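Much of what follows relies on a compact textual record of a protein's fold. A record is reproduced here so that you can trace the correspondence yourselves:

. . .
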Amino acid sequence: MTKSLNEAIKSLSPEIQMFINNRHKEIREKYLAMLKTKLDRLLKYYEIDTDRFIEQYSLDSVVPAICMNEDCNNIDNMEPDQGEGYCEECHTNTVVSGLILIEELHE
């Protein structure tokens, strides 16, 4: 959270602060679970584990990527730093590189 948001939360009652912090934690956990599910699908498709994926693709100019929409699992190739690639299946800018998924999950 940003500094000004943290300051605003501190000005609230302890009960509301706890509610906001718990809700933030819950949303973060759901987000990480969704990232893991998508990364697992991508790794399974390529029959590779995370370490091998990093080793094989970390220096490439194009890497495996997956659509992040819940009902779409389109797999494509994108730039390693792509976080908003175009999905040919659902026509949205929601394709994320596998390297970005791994980085997000290992922060």
Observations:
- The helical segments are 3-10, 14-46, 50-57, 98-105.
- The longest strand covers residues 63-67.
- The CA atoms of residues 87 and 95 lie 6 Å apart.
